[in-house]
Design brief:
The mean pLDDT is 92. The protein has 145 residues and is an all-alpha fold. The chain is globular and about 55 Å long. It has one domain. Helix 3 crosses helix 4. 67% of the residues lie in helices and 0% in strands.
């Protein structure tokens, strides 16, 4: 594994672990949202999507990345969250796009590094009849360099 891949994994993991925990513990000051962004975040909080679902997923996926365990799963869990963070800053809270773009860049770089793990789910067709079902086993997927 290259040092760049490790650095990207740790940076993305740390960002989601810290910001996920901040959702629960509120140790980082955040400016109060206004307008449409306040309504959107209020709806997420009121319905239980933000806490514990989204923030809990961020904490768990961040820990997965930091511990180098289940990295492809963590990347798959974080992808829709990152899309929503990017859309939120592009459409509702017009500004602060720097960090979301950086995080999306890290996600894309890691997805590329772990592309072998994602190849099976990107197949256009899978013929289940011709491939025998094998018992579950431990598979080690090293990132491509």
């Amino acid at each position: 594994m290259s040092k760049l891949t490790t650095a990207a994994r740790l940076a993305l993991g740390l960002a989601f672990f810290v910001f996920g925990l901040n959702g629960f513990l509120q140790f980082l000051p955040m400016p109060p949202p206004s307008g449409a962004s306040a309504a959107f975040l209020g709806a997420l909080a009121a319905t239980g999507y933000m806490f514990p679902l989204i923030k809990g997923t961020e904490v768990i996926a961040g820990l997965m990345l930091l511990s180098n365990r289940f990295v492809p799963l963590a990347l798959a869990l974080l992808a829709p969250i990152l899309v929503n963070i990017l859309a939120f800053h592009a459409l509702l809270e017009r500004g602060g796009l720097g960090l979301p773009l950086f995080l999306v860049g890290l996600e894309l770089a890691l997805a590329y590094a772990y592309r072998q793990a994602f190849a099976p789910m990107l197949a256009a067709r899978v013929d289940l009849d011709s491939s025998p079902v094998e018992p579950a086993r431990s598979v080690s997927v090293a990132p491509a360099e």
